[in-house]
């Protein structure tokens, strides 16, 4: 019965979100309450599971999410990402789609996806004719889509990556070691395959572009205004302005490498902790921009970052609540039997099932992060009984959560507007690219499972 009740709870959450437009936080909490009461956990037990699960995941990822968003807000105010994109456009020319996909999947994950598309869309439109007069814009659009979401789900400090790793109790350094190459390869391979599809007549400019250019102006109004004085900080060399991102990545990766090598160093272990590393990156960003905009200016930028952080933290925390309620429902033993149904290939079955759960949730809900968090909440209580390294299951969830970003996503419409695409054009670029990326990354996760098993 616990399987039936869990299915009812999840379907109810999806229906509330899609059909009745109820906020994901409220919908997931309704699912938690129903599941807790229906599986005999009692009123107090249900409340304890919800609050306990929320607190546990906040202890894991709360600071990380906050620091990542704030770093991104500060760098955005200095024009760091805009200048990086412009530099790539000058240096790589017709290879810009690959450069964009690579940069967004490895460097940009420190900022939220909405900001990334706002920054990159104008550059994509301007440089499209130089890349390919006929297919430049759709190719760049697809590269943007898969680059943004490969980084978002696979690369720390991407918010979905941090959330899934936290829910699955995977150290962020370990997740970064596996996720970074998978995210980069997924972005590059998908960009290549997408270009092949475009060459086979996929793109029809007459129907795939939006004839009403005024819509683009509406999307441009969503850009965050520059903070007065920030232009002085923007004169710093680009590599210096990227230090708030590069420093945490280097520290986290160093700590992870030392851990894998079995070497201990108290100082590097401390600095390599993800919370400390990202906090240091935040301090560097503040120190870099404060002389230009002053304390009030920094406060203004950070306040904007706090607004973005709130909903992300709530959704992530409630994902932890759902996991805790599922953990107390008795579903663990049933799902464990399902995951290991074929003893000849438990790893493959576990990976495929995790991928499918995340893919179906994303297709239905329309949010990569909510799908990943919900899937992780469902699977986390049983991951210890699977005989599979948790990082592999976390990566499988990340892979599936990218599948088919479409019309029930706010990002879809923002992407459509900023790039002057029709709905059909966005389905052919963003939806197809993310679906292709989810499929491309799946065999890479299978390879990662072999590496994890051998270490």
From TrEMBL:
The keyword ATP-binding does not apply. Pfam families: GntP_permease. The keyword Transmembrane applies. Keywords: Membrane, Transmembrane, Transmembrane helix. The chain crosses the membrane at residues 6-37, 57-78, 98-124, 136-155, 175-198, 238-258, 270-289, 301-327, 347-380, 392-415, 435-454. It comes from the Bacteria. InterPro entries: Glcn_transporter (IPR003474). This is GntP family permease. It comes from Nocardioides abyssi.
């Amino acid at each position: 019965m616990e399987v039936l009740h869990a299915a009812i709870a999840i379907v109810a959450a999806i229906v509330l979100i899609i059909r009745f437009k109820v906020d994901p936080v409220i919908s997931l909490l309704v699912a938690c309450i129903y599941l807790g009461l229906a599986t005999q956990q009692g009123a107090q037990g249900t409340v304890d599971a919800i609050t306990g699960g929320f607190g546990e995941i906040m202890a894991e990822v709360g600071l990380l999410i906050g620091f990542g968003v704030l770093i991104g807000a500060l760098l955005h105010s200095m024009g760091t990402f805009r200048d990086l994109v412009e530099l790539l456009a000058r240096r790589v020319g017709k290879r810009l789609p690959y450069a964009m996909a690579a940069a967004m999947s490895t460097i940009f994950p420190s900022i939220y996806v909405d900001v990334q598309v706002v920054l990159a869309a104008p550059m994509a439109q301007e440089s499209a004719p130089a890349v390919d007069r006929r297919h430049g814009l759709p190719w760049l659009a697809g590269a943007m889509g898969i680059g943004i979401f490969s980084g978002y789900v696979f690369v720390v400090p991407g918010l979905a990556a941090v959330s899934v790793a936290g829910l699955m109790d995977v150290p962020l350094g370990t997740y970064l070691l596996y996720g970074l190459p998978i995210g980069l390869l997924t972005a590059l391979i998908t960009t290549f395959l997408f270009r092949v599809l475009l060459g086979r007549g996929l793109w029809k400019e007459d129907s795939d572009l939006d004839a009403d250019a005024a819509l683009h102006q509406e999307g441009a109004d969503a850009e965050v205004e520059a903070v007065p004085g920030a232009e002085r900080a923007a004169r710093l060399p680009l590599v210096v302005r990227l230090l708030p991102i590069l420093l945490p990545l280097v520290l986290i990766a160093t700590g992870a490498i030392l851990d894998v090598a079995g070497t201990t160093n108290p100082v590097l272990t401390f600095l390599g902790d993800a919370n400390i590393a990202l906090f240091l990156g935040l301090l560097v960003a503040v120190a870099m921009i404060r002389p230009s905009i002053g304390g009030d200016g920094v406060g203004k930028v950070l306040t904007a970052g706090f607004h973005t952080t709130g909903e992300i933290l709530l959704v992530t925390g409630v994902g932890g609540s759902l996991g805790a309620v599922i953990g107390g429902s008795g579903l663990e033993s049933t799902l464990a039997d399902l995951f290991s149904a074929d003893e000849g290939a438990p790893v493959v079955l576990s990976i495929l099932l995790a991928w499918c759960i995340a893919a179906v949730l994303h297709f239905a809900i329309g949010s990569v992060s909510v799908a990943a968090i919900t899937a992780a909440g469902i699977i986390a209580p049983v991951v210890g009984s699977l005989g599979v390294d948790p990082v592999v299951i976390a990566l499988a969830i990340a892979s599936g959560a990218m599948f088919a970003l479409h019309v029930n996503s706010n990002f879809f419409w923002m992407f459509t507007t900023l790039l002057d695409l029709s709905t059909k054009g966005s389905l052919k670029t963003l939806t197809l690219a993310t679906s292709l990326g989810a499929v491309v990354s799946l065999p890479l996760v299978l390879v990662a499972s072999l590496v994890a098993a051998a270490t």
